[in-house]
Structures are given as structure tokens and as C-alpha cells.
Amino acid sequence: MPRDDFSPHVKETLAKRVAYHCSNPKCSVITTGPHTDAEKSINIGVASHITAAASGGPRYDALFTPEQRSSIGNGIWLCQSCAKLIDSDVLEYNVAKLNEWKSQAEQKTLELMKYTDQTTFYPQPEKAMHTPIPIIANLPYEIARERMINSGWQPIMQHWSYPSRNLTLQAGDGKYFWSKGFHEIINACPTGLGFCTFGFSDVYKNKFVIVTAGEVLEDEGVFAHVWSWYFKDIS
To answer: Quick check: pTM over 0.85?
Structure first.
């Protein structure tokens, strides 16, 4: 039986709608990047069918027309690993879950597009002996972190064993941020506003702490935002 495959245009549009990131909220890896050949790029992304392209495939729906199976509405952009994952357990990764992933990934991308300006900084005295601080108030931590790094601030990375000595990093937001590789996290509060603190330094040896608030519910597209910040000596 022939497959109802996506057109090149549908594949490209699916990828662009999530900025070439995997739509699995627990992955979100970027799926394109540079090749060693300066005239080439690498792609590890796949335009996957939510309901199978042919009879006998994962989540196949006999009521779909060929046009529906090959339409953008039946597609989701994933990395190759997650594309294999969803087809290995169709009960866990059902149509409803994949449509939810797709919707959340597109909404997250739309939100991130609001925070693309990397050039605006808070005012500071001419004699200030610290790297300029980019505007980060109320931004999702991931975006604030990127702005800080692009502005010259460096994360103060904790040792790999830090979570075993700081129990607040073994659950909730702490576990989430550590798993993302944000090892500049200092503490995570599991109650109240869910405060988390993160340390940065600059070339002048200043230490800068960012405080976030809000519980991270990645599956629901909810992320912690910058609450406040301050200078401090972090030992």
C-alpha cells in the first residue's frame, strides 16, 4: 500500500513552526546545525506522522483521507530519537498526546519570539565596574540566561556532585534546571513561589545572582520567570 508522505513544503513548515526544535517537551533539542563543510548543514529532525502514513503503521486511522494523512495537521517535528520513541509505544504516545506536544511546542516558540532583542540594557553609571546587565525582568529563565551569556556574563557552574549535597535540586524545579544543564543553579525552593537562584560572574570578578519564581510545568508550557537579582559574593 502506498504511503501518504509529506511534501517538502509541509516538512519545512513543520520544522520552522517550532524553530527546528524537537516538539517533545522533555527533549526540545535543536535539530539543525553546522556541518564541518562550510557549505553544508546537518539535520537530525524528522517530520513524523501523528497518524500513520500507511495501513499497519503506528496510530493508523482508516477514516483519514490520503490528503489528511499528508497534511500539516497530521505532522509533528521531532528529533530522530523521539520519532523512534513515539512509534515504539503507541499506547503511551497516542494521537492526543502528540497533538498536545505539537500545540505546546508551537506556543512556546511563539512566546520565545517575543524576547529576541539581545541589545537592550539597564541604565548604569559610566563609572560602574561591572558588565552591563541586559533587561531580564519577567523573562523565562532560559531566555534571561541566554541574554546574560550574550552580554558577557558567565554562569558559575557547580560541580557535578552538587545535587547530592543540595537536596533541593533533587526534585521539582531544581531537578528540571539541573537536567537542562543549567548547573549555575544555587538553590531551589519547593514551596511558596518556588524561588530558584542562579549565579553568574563577569570579567571584573563581580558575582550576580538571578532569582526566578514559579513552578515549571513543562508539559503544560509553564516556565519559571525572573523575579529579582542582586550582586553578591558567591563562595
So the answer is: no
38 φ, ψ to 5°? -60, -15
Name the nearest CA neighbour of 186 among 226, 231, 235: 235
- Classify 212 as helix, strand or coil: strand
Instruction: Please check whether residue 229 is in contact with residue 153, taking contact to mean a CB–CB distance below 8 angstroms.
Output: no
Q: What percentage of the chain reaches a pLDDT higher than 70?
A: 94
Q: Alpha-carbon distance 141 to 183, whole Å?
A: 13
Q: Are 96 and 109 in contact (CB under 8 A)?
A: no
What would the pLDDT profile of 170-190 be if each residue is shown by its tens digit? 888 999 999 989 999 999 988
Q: Rounded to whole angstroms, what are the CA distances from 148 to 118, 136, 175, 187?
A: 9, 8, 22, 19
Q: What is the pLDDT of residue 172?
A: 81
CA–CA separation, 9 and 72 (whole Å): 9
Q: Distance (Å, rounded) from C-alpha 58 to C-alpha 61?
A: 9
The answer to whether 197 and 171 have CB atoms below 8 angstroms apart is no
Smallest Cα–Cα separation from 210: which of 163, 147, 119, 160?
147
